[in-house]
């Protein structure tokens, strides 16, 4: 079954979502879902999508008195009257999550950017409002190698102590030896309290490579010393007689 976690930036907004289950029993079909839903949530009939997939559509408009977490659980029931395990999600009604701010200068809202040394360890980024540790584990901050698009360090924002939250700033203490000459970028998973950052240009930095840095050498040539020869002066006396 496929589920997502949602948050809403305002009330009285209608959400439409699908619950999908697949039957792996030969000849069996999904006939129904057993659900526990927020008040006012509407469920469609179960419809076959082919390939053993069966869909139920949810429609719900949260009301003012439903502000905060609202749970939904569902378990699929097949034509043999066998029920799957229940899967649950939490709708966070009325939550307005902070957005991370894309930096536009070297000394901007994310630090560092540009070129840094290979032993740099403290990274920080600001949000549009105060930030707090996510309420669930499994929401990751990833440092990615731009040459391979693979993670070189991954931190669980839900519990790891080297991720600090203070006011509107998230600070990350990394312990990786950055490779000189390489480029890296930072990604953020989605969580109940924030949207994901998946753009590799959002927060990127390069590692200084001393092997290719330019060095200018100035050579000073001493002045040339020559020998000057002077002729002796002769004195001529005019005979006035």
Describe the protein in words:
- With 241 residues, the protein is mostly beta strands.
- The termini are far apart.
- The protein folds into two domains: 3-93, Immunoglobulin-like, CATH 2.60.40; 110-207, Sandwich (Immunoglobulin-like).
- 0% of the residues lie in helices and 38% in strands.
- It contains no helices and 17 strands.
- It is elongated.
Shape call:
elongated
The beta-strand count equals 17
Query: Which architecture of the largest domain would the CATH scheme give at its second level?
Result: Sandwich
The radius of gyration over CA amounts to: 35 Å
Describe the biggest sheet? 5 strands, mixed
Structural class: mainly beta
Tally of alpha and pi helices: 0
Strand content: 35-45%
CATH class of the largest domain: Mainly Beta
**Multimerization state:** single chain
Average pLDDT level: 80
Spans of 5+ residues with little confidence (pLDDT < 50)? 1-9, 215-220, 227-241
By CATH, the topology of the largest domain is Immunoglobulin-like
> How many domains would you count in the coordinates?
2
As laid out across the biggest beta sheet, the strand order is 10-17-16-12-13
Percentage of helical residues? under 10%
What keywords describe this structure?
241 residues, mainly beta, Immunoglobulin-like, 2 domains, four-stranded mixed β-sheet, 38% strand, disordered N terminus
């Amino acid at each position: 079954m496929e589920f997502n976690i949602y948050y809403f930036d305002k009330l009285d907004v209608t959400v439409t979502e699908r619950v999908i289950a697949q039957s792996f029993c030969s000849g069996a079909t999904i006939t129904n879902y057993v659900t526990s839903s927020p008040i006012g949530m509407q469920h469609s009939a179960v419809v076959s999508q082919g390939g053993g997939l069966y869909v139920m559509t949810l429609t719900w408009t949260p009301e003012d008195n439903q502000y905060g977490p609202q749970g939904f659980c569902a378990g699929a029931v097949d034509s043999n009257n066998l029920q799957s395990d229940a899967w649950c999600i939490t709708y966070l009604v009325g939550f307005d999550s902070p957005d991370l701010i894309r930096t536009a200068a070297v000394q901007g809202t994310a630090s560092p950017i540009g070129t840094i040394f290979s032993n740099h360890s403290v990274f920080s980024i600001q949000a549009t409002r105060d930030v707090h540790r996510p309420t669930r584990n499994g929401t990751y901050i990833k440092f990615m190698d731009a040459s391979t698009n693979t993670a070189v360090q991954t931190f669980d924002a839900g519990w790891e102590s080297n991720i600090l939250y203070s006011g509107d700033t998230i600070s990350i203490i990394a312990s990786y030896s950055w490779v000189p000459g390489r480029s890296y970028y930072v990604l953020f998973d989605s969580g109940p309290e924030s949207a994901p950052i998946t753009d590799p240009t959002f927060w990127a930095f390069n590692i200084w490579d001393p092997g290719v840095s330019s060095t200018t050498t100035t050579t000073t040539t001493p002045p040339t010393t020559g020998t000057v020869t002077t002729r002796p002066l002769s004195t001529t006396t005019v005979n006035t007689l």
